[in-house]
Amino acid sequence: MSNALRAAGVRLDELLPARRPRRAFRHWRRTRPFWGGAAVVTGGAVILLIPLAPLPVMIHVGTAAVSGAAIGVILISAGLFFWFAPAQRAFVAVITTVCALVSVVTTNLGGLGVGALLALLGSAMAFGWRPHRNPAQGRRGGYLTILLSAVLIVEAGPAARPASAEESAPPRPGEHVPQVRADKLLATGFTVKGAVNLPTVDGGTIKALVFHADNLKADNYRITTTDPGPRLELGIDLDIDDVDIYATRLSGVVTVPYLDIEVLPIEITAGLIPTWLPLDLTLPVFSGNDVRAGQVFIRARTVRGSDLSADVGARSRR
Questions:
Q1: Residues 82, 126: Cα–Cα separation, whole Å
Q2: What's the CA gap between 44 and 157, in Å, rounded?
Q3: pTM strictly above 0.90
Q4: Using CA atoms, how far apart are residues 82 and 89, in angstroms rounded to an integer?
Q5: N or C: which end of the chain has fewer CB within 10 A?
Q6: What share of the chain is helix, strand, coil (3-state, %, to 5)?
Q7: Mind spelling out the 3-state secondary structure of 154-197?
Q8: Containing H/E element for 299?
């Protein structure tokens, strides 16, 4: 029966007009969580339009109307993210789920329940979606990888060996995490990668947020030690390229890039993000004022600095 349905589909595809555009659209649809995005967009539209419906039981003004408009716009934007930025689907799916649940108690039961259910269904579909992979291509790629690995081992001889886990692993931080702050921060190619558990030198673990930036500039960057003994504070203006940042928390005030207009205070801790959640949220530009963090460590390709200062004082007792 499946063969008959497949043959009927091929025959129908030949009879319908605009064959090439339909095939191009089909290829585009299969490379992203299309139906999940469509369900979220539809749910957002329902939540957005329900307060505008000519029904006497609807609330047209006040908090419900404002919430319906805001949540509806957020859900529609999330659906567009699923279509045009599928790499961010995991993070966007979490935001979509939260907004759909909030809409139930803030705006007409989430579009009479229909909008919230569609948004929840679409977010689940998008979160579970994975890129299509041709099994035959995967097998050929696997055979080619094995063949190349064998050739490299034979060519290199016994002296060649892969890097050990200790060589490729990040440094082991200590128990006491330095506290850092900067008056102004500007990062280009800023990526939130999620959270990881890092081993410490004393055999334990510490959970840290992971960020990456193609370039990071920090004005009046100050780092203060928290180890027992005298307090050491270093100050410098930093300009770093290709930097990975591991921090236990991040707080500050988000600003409009290059205009220095404060928009939103934020505070993120490593405990808020589970390590199993795959994040790869990239912002072209990120800027903030009074940025503070518990810095575990950073790794960078190039570090430039100016106006270095140092201050050593007694550790305050509490």
A1: 7
A2: 60
A3: no
A4: 6
A5: C
A6: 45, 35, 20
A7: HHHHHHCCCCCHHHHCCCCCCCCCCEEEEEEEEEEEEEEEEEEE
A8: strand 281-313
